[in-house]
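Notes from hallway chat w/ T.B., transcribed later so I don't forget. T.B. wanted the structure written out for a chain they're using in a teaching module, and asked if we could keep both sequence and structure tokens in one place. Agreed to drop them here.
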Amino acid sequence: MESPVIRELKILLLDNLNKRFPVVSLHICAFLLDPAQLKIDITRYLAQNQTTKELTLLDMMKKFRIHYDPQ
């Protein structure tokens, strides 16, 4: 059983995690392209950002104009 101080510290750290270590779509794109990361589940991130793996990669392709052919 953890003390109230430790519990409060964990809450404060988690609440500010996005401010301290922001995750941007470029990070997610790199994550998706790294075969070593296949077992890590990012469905919660994708749901929170209302996107999919495919859309994230497509957005990066558009952003950096990587073989993007707008038809």
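Follow-up for T.B.: Residues 4 and 10 are 10 Å apart (CA to CA). Might be a good example for the class.
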